[in-house]
Amino acid sequence: MTKVMATPDQPSLDQTFPCPDSAFAETVTEVEHYTDRLFRFRLTRPASFRFRSGEFVMIGLPGEKPVWRAYSIASPSWDDTLEFYSIKVPGGPLTEHLQKIQPGDCVWFRKKPTGTLVLDALLPGKRLWMISTGTGFAPFASLIRDPEAYEKFDQLIVTHTCREKDELTYSLNTVAETKSDPLVGELADRLELVTSTTQEESALMGRITTLLEDGTLYQRLNITALNPEEDRVMICGSMAMLKDVKALVEARGFTEGSNSKPGQFVVERAFVD
Ligand code: A2P
Q: Is the distance from CB of 173 to CB of 167 less than 8 angstroms?
Protein backbone atom coordinates (compact mmCIF):
# COMPACT_ATOMS: atom_id res chain seq x y z
CA MET A 1 0.00 0.00 0.00
CA THR A 2 1.42 3.42 -0.90
CA LYS A 3 0.26 6.63 0.66
CA VAL A 4 1.15 10.08 -0.63
CA MET A 5 0.38 13.14 1.49
CA ALA A 6 0.72 16.79 0.50
CA THR A 7 2.66 18.95 2.94
CA PRO A 8 3.66 22.60 2.41
CA ASP A 9 7.38 21.74 2.09
CA GLN A 10 6.82 18.61 -0.01
CA PRO A 11 5.08 19.57 -3.25
CA SER A 12 3.79 17.01 -5.74
CA LEU A 13 6.70 15.41 -7.61
CA ASP A 14 4.76 15.09 -10.82
CA GLN A 15 2.32 17.88 -11.64
CA THR A 16 0.42 15.77 -14.15
CA PHE A 17 -2.75 17.84 -13.93
CA PRO A 18 -1.98 21.51 -13.16
CA CYS A 19 -4.88 23.42 -11.63
CA PRO A 20 -6.28 26.01 -14.06
CA ASP A 21 -8.38 28.89 -12.82
CA SER A 22 -11.79 27.21 -13.04
CA ALA A 23 -14.92 27.15 -10.92
CA PHE A 24 -14.66 23.33 -11.02
CA ALA A 25 -11.02 23.00 -9.91
CA GLU A 26 -10.13 21.35 -6.59
CA THR A 27 -6.67 20.27 -5.42
CA VAL A 28 -5.68 16.70 -4.52
CA THR A 29 -4.46 16.57 -0.90
CA GLU A 30 -3.92 12.83 -0.39
CA VAL A 31 -3.78 9.60 -2.42
CA GLU A 32 -3.65 6.01 -1.11
CA HIS A 33 -3.41 2.94 -3.34
CA TYR A 34 -4.67 -0.38 -1.96
CA THR A 35 -4.39 -2.78 -4.89
CA ASP A 36 -3.73 -2.48 -8.61
CA ARG A 37 -7.50 -1.99 -8.93
CA LEU A 38 -8.43 0.22 -5.96
CA PHE A 39 -7.39 3.59 -4.47
CA ARG A 40 -8.77 6.51 -2.52
CA PHE A 41 -8.05 10.23 -2.79
CA ARG A 42 -8.92 13.44 -0.98
CA LEU A 43 -9.68 16.86 -2.47
CA THR A 44 -9.87 20.33 -0.99
CA ARG A 45 -13.47 21.24 -0.11
CA PRO A 46 -14.94 24.43 -1.62
CA ALA A 47 -16.02 26.72 1.25
CA SER A 48 -19.57 27.04 -0.09
CA PHE A 49 -20.08 23.29 -0.72
CA ARG A 50 -22.72 21.52 1.40
CA PHE A 51 -23.89 17.90 1.04
CA ARG A 52 -25.70 15.19 2.99
CA SER A 53 -23.66 12.14 4.01
CA GLY A 54 -24.22 9.37 1.41
CA GLU A 55 -24.66 11.68 -1.62
CA PHE A 56 -22.62 11.64 -4.84
CA VAL A 57 -21.11 14.30 -7.13
CA MET A 58 -19.58 14.38 -10.61
CA ILE A 59 -15.78 14.18 -10.88
CA GLY A 60 -13.65 14.90 -13.96
CA LEU A 61 -10.16 15.80 -15.08
CA PRO A 62 -9.05 18.99 -16.84
CA GLY A 63 -8.40 18.48 -20.54
CA GLU A 64 -9.67 19.19 -24.00
CA LYS A 65 -12.59 16.79 -23.63
CA PRO A 66 -13.29 16.35 -19.91
CA VAL A 67 -14.95 13.05 -18.97
CA TRP A 68 -17.26 13.19 -15.95
CA ARG A 69 -18.23 10.25 -13.73
CA ALA A 70 -20.43 9.98 -10.64
CA TYR A 71 -18.57 9.39 -7.39
CA SER A 72 -20.06 8.90 -3.92
CA ILE A 73 -18.48 11.20 -1.36
CA ALA A 74 -16.86 8.88 1.18
CA SER A 75 -16.15 11.51 3.85
CA PRO A 76 -18.87 12.71 6.21
CA SER A 77 -20.67 16.04 5.74
CA TRP A 78 -18.66 17.72 8.57
CA ASP A 79 -15.20 16.93 7.15
CA ASP A 80 -12.79 19.68 5.95
CA THR A 81 -11.73 17.71 2.85
CA LEU A 82 -13.63 15.40 0.49
CA GLU A 83 -12.72 11.71 0.26
CA PHE A 84 -13.45 9.41 -2.72
CA TYR A 85 -12.90 5.67 -3.19
CA SER A 86 -12.25 4.53 -6.73
CA ILE A 87 -11.69 1.55 -8.92
CA LYS A 88 -8.95 1.71 -11.61
CA VAL A 89 -10.34 0.48 -14.91
CA PRO A 90 -7.65 -0.36 -17.50
CA GLY A 91 -8.45 1.85 -20.50
CA GLY A 92 -11.35 3.50 -18.58
CA PRO A 93 -11.96 7.03 -19.95
CA LEU A 94 -11.58 8.67 -16.52
CA THR A 95 -9.95 6.21 -14.12
CA GLU A 96 -7.08 5.33 -16.47
CA HIS A 97 -5.90 8.95 -15.88
CA LEU A 98 -7.38 9.58 -12.44
CA GLN A 99 -5.33 6.74 -10.92
CA LYS A 100 -2.15 8.76 -11.68
CA ILE A 101 -3.09 11.85 -9.63
CA GLN A 102 -0.68 13.07 -6.96
CA PRO A 103 -1.09 15.61 -4.14
CA GLY A 104 -1.06 19.09 -5.68
CA ASP A 105 -2.77 17.97 -8.90
CA CYS A 106 -6.11 19.30 -9.99
CA VAL A 107 -9.37 17.39 -10.24
CA TRP A 108 -12.65 18.82 -11.51
CA PHE A 109 -15.60 18.63 -9.23
CA ARG A 110 -19.24 19.69 -9.82
CA LYS A 111 -20.78 21.17 -6.69
CA LYS A 112 -24.19 19.52 -7.16
CA PRO A 113 -24.62 16.68 -4.68
CA THR A 114 -27.48 14.23 -5.16
CA GLY A 115 -28.49 10.65 -4.36
CA THR A 116 -30.88 8.38 -2.47
CA LEU A 117 -28.52 6.80 0.11
CA VAL A 118 -29.38 9.51 2.62
CA LEU A 119 -30.92 9.30 6.07
CA ASP A 120 -33.80 11.55 4.92
CA ALA A 121 -34.99 8.83 2.49
CA LEU A 122 -35.57 6.32 5.33
CA LEU A 123 -38.41 6.10 7.83
CA PRO A 124 -37.38 5.93 11.51
CA GLY A 125 -36.18 2.48 12.62
CA LYS A 126 -34.03 0.62 15.15
CA ARG A 127 -31.19 -0.80 13.04
CA LEU A 128 -29.59 0.65 9.92
CA TRP A 129 -28.15 -1.94 7.53
CA MET A 130 -25.69 -0.71 4.88
CA ILE A 131 -25.07 -3.54 2.41
CA SER A 132 -22.21 -3.10 -0.08
CA THR A 133 -20.02 -4.90 -2.57
CA GLY A 134 -16.81 -3.54 -4.15
CA THR A 135 -16.62 0.27 -4.31
CA GLY A 136 -20.25 0.37 -3.13
CA PHE A 137 -18.80 0.79 0.37
CA ALA A 138 -17.98 4.48 -0.42
CA PRO A 139 -21.29 6.16 0.59
CA PHE A 140 -21.30 4.10 3.79
CA ALA A 141 -17.80 5.35 4.64
CA SER A 142 -19.53 8.74 4.79
CA LEU A 143 -22.62 7.69 6.75
CA ILE A 144 -20.80 5.69 9.46
CA ARG A 145 -18.81 8.85 10.29
CA ASP A 146 -21.92 11.03 10.61
CA PRO A 147 -23.25 11.55 14.18
CA GLU A 148 -26.78 11.95 12.77
CA ALA A 149 -26.82 8.26 11.76
CA TYR A 150 -26.23 7.32 15.43
CA GLU A 151 -28.89 9.79 16.60
CA LYS A 152 -31.44 8.13 14.31
CA PHE A 153 -30.53 4.44 14.86
CA ASP A 154 -29.60 2.27 17.87
CA GLN A 155 -27.35 0.03 15.80
CA LEU A 156 -25.49 0.41 12.49
CA ILE A 157 -24.49 -2.71 10.55
CA VAL A 158 -22.31 -2.30 7.47
CA THR A 159 -21.49 -5.28 5.28
CA HIS A 160 -18.79 -5.32 2.61
CA THR A 161 -18.28 -8.25 0.26
CA CYS A 162 -15.47 -8.47 -2.29
CA ARG A 163 -13.86 -11.18 -4.33
CA GLU A 164 -10.50 -11.04 -2.50
CA LYS A 165 -9.19 -10.08 0.95
CA ASP A 166 -7.04 -7.14 -0.24
CA GLU A 167 -10.15 -5.44 -1.55
CA LEU A 168 -11.47 -5.16 2.01
CA THR A 169 -8.59 -2.95 3.24
CA TYR A 170 -10.43 0.34 2.74
CA SER A 171 -13.54 -0.71 4.71
CA LEU A 172 -11.48 -2.33 7.48
CA ASN A 173 -9.27 0.78 7.83
CA THR A 174 -12.18 3.22 7.67
CA VAL A 175 -14.17 1.42 10.35
CA ALA A 176 -11.09 1.10 12.60
CA GLU A 177 -10.37 4.84 12.19
CA THR A 178 -14.04 5.69 12.83
CA LYS A 179 -14.00 3.73 16.10
CA SER A 180 -10.99 5.75 17.34
CA ASP A 181 -12.17 9.10 15.94
CA PRO A 182 -12.51 11.86 18.60
CA LEU A 183 -15.88 13.03 17.21
CA VAL A 184 -17.73 9.77 16.46
CA GLY A 185 -15.56 7.09 18.10
CA GLU A 186 -17.75 6.70 21.18
CA LEU A 187 -20.94 6.54 19.10
CA ALA A 188 -19.32 3.97 16.81
CA ASP A 189 -19.42 1.41 19.63
CA ARG A 190 -22.80 0.75 18.06
CA LEU A 191 -21.30 0.11 14.61
CA GLU A 192 -20.65 -3.46 13.36
CA LEU A 193 -18.67 -4.22 10.20
CA VAL A 194 -19.10 -7.63 8.57
CA THR A 195 -16.71 -8.40 5.71
CA SER A 196 -16.81 -11.45 3.47
CA THR A 197 -14.99 -12.71 0.39
CA THR A 198 -16.26 -14.87 -2.41
CA GLN A 199 -13.16 -15.93 -4.33
CA GLU A 200 -10.39 -16.10 -1.74
CA GLU A 201 -10.32 -18.00 1.56
CA SER A 202 -11.07 -15.70 4.55
CA ALA A 203 -12.69 -15.78 8.00
CA LEU A 204 -16.17 -15.38 6.45
CA MET A 205 -16.90 -16.49 2.92
CA GLY A 206 -19.99 -16.04 0.77
CA ARG A 207 -22.13 -13.55 -1.11
CA ILE A 208 -24.19 -11.27 1.11
CA THR A 209 -27.39 -12.75 -0.34
CA THR A 210 -26.32 -16.23 0.81
CA LEU A 211 -25.26 -15.00 4.28
CA LEU A 212 -28.66 -13.33 4.73
CA GLU A 213 -30.67 -16.23 3.35
CA ASP A 214 -28.97 -19.00 5.33
CA GLY A 215 -29.02 -16.99 8.59
CA THR A 216 -25.23 -16.90 9.06
CA LEU A 217 -25.24 -13.14 9.49
CA TYR A 218 -27.98 -13.04 12.12
CA GLN A 219 -26.26 -15.74 14.18
CA ARG A 220 -22.96 -13.91 13.94
CA LEU A 221 -24.49 -10.60 15.11
CA ASN A 222 -26.92 -12.27 17.51
CA ILE A 223 -29.91 -10.35 16.14
CA THR A 224 -33.34 -11.11 14.71
CA ALA A 225 -33.74 -11.58 10.95
CA LEU A 226 -34.34 -8.54 8.72
CA ASN A 227 -37.85 -7.20 9.28
CA PRO A 228 -39.57 -3.99 8.15
CA GLU A 229 -40.71 -3.08 11.67
CA GLU A 230 -37.19 -2.66 13.08
CA ASP A 231 -34.74 -2.56 10.18
CA ARG A 232 -33.88 0.01 7.51
CA VAL A 233 -31.64 -1.00 4.61
CA MET A 234 -29.34 0.88 2.24
CA ILE A 235 -27.86 -1.09 -0.68
CA CYS A 236 -24.91 -0.12 -2.92
CA GLY A 237 -22.98 -2.28 -5.38
CA SER A 238 -23.17 -3.82 -8.85
CA MET A 239 -26.48 -3.96 -10.73
CA ALA A 240 -26.75 -7.74 -10.25
CA MET A 241 -26.20 -7.45 -6.50
CA LEU A 242 -28.71 -4.58 -6.17
CA LYS A 243 -31.34 -6.59 -8.01
CA ASP A 244 -30.88 -9.65 -5.80
CA VAL A 245 -30.72 -7.82 -2.46
CA LYS A 246 -33.71 -5.65 -3.43
CA ALA A 247 -35.72 -8.81 -4.24
CA LEU A 248 -34.64 -10.32 -0.92
CA VAL A 249 -35.81 -7.35 1.20
CA GLU A 250 -39.00 -6.89 -0.84
CA ALA A 251 -39.84 -10.54 -0.21
CA ARG A 252 -39.62 -9.70 3.50
CA GLY A 253 -42.14 -6.85 3.08
CA PHE A 254 -39.81 -3.83 2.82
CA THR A 255 -40.93 -0.86 0.67
CA GLU A 256 -38.48 1.31 -1.26
CA GLY A 257 -37.96 4.93 -0.21
CA SER A 258 -36.81 8.09 -1.96
CA ASN A 259 -36.00 11.69 -1.04
CA SER A 260 -39.62 12.73 -1.60
CA LYS A 261 -41.18 9.63 0.02
CA PRO A 262 -39.11 7.98 2.76
CA GLY A 263 -39.37 4.18 2.97
CA GLN A 264 -37.82 1.09 4.54
CA PHE A 265 -34.96 0.60 2.06
CA VAL A 266 -33.03 2.58 -0.56
CA VAL A 267 -30.76 1.53 -3.42
CA GLU A 268 -27.93 3.06 -5.45
CA ARG A 269 -25.47 1.48 -7.86
CA ALA A 270 -21.73 1.84 -7.32
CA PHE A 271 -21.05 4.12 -10.25
CA VAL A 272 -17.59 3.83 -11.79
CA ASP A 273 -17.17 0.52 -13.57
P1 A2P B 1 -18.90 -13.43 -6.77
O2 A2P B 1 -17.41 -13.47 -6.70
O3 A2P B 1 -19.54 -14.70 -6.30
O4 A2P B 1 -19.41 -12.99 -8.13
P5 A2P B 1 -17.87 -7.55 -8.59
O6 A2P B 1 -16.40 -7.24 -8.42
O7 A2P B 1 -18.19 -8.46 -9.73
O8 A2P B 1 -18.74 -6.32 -8.57
O9 A2P B 1 -18.26 -8.36 -7.30
C10 A2P B 1 -18.07 -7.86 -6.00
C11 A2P B 1 -18.66 -8.84 -5.04
O12 A2P B 1 -20.07 -8.89 -5.22
C13 A2P B 1 -18.14 -10.26 -5.25
O14 A2P B 1 -17.84 -10.81 -3.99
C15 A2P B 1 -19.29 -10.94 -5.94
O16 A2P B 1 -19.39 -12.33 -5.69
C17 A2P B 1 -20.47 -10.24 -5.32
N18 A2P B 1 -21.67 -10.35 -6.16
C19 A2P B 1 -21.72 -10.30 -7.51
N20 A2P B 1 -22.98 -10.45 -7.95
C21 A2P B 1 -23.75 -10.61 -6.85
C22 A2P B 1 -25.16 -10.80 -6.65
N23 A2P B 1 -26.01 -10.88 -7.69
N24 A2P B 1 -25.60 -10.89 -5.38
C25 A2P B 1 -24.75 -10.82 -4.34
N26 A2P B 1 -23.42 -10.64 -4.47
C27 A2P B 1 -22.92 -10.52 -5.71
A: no
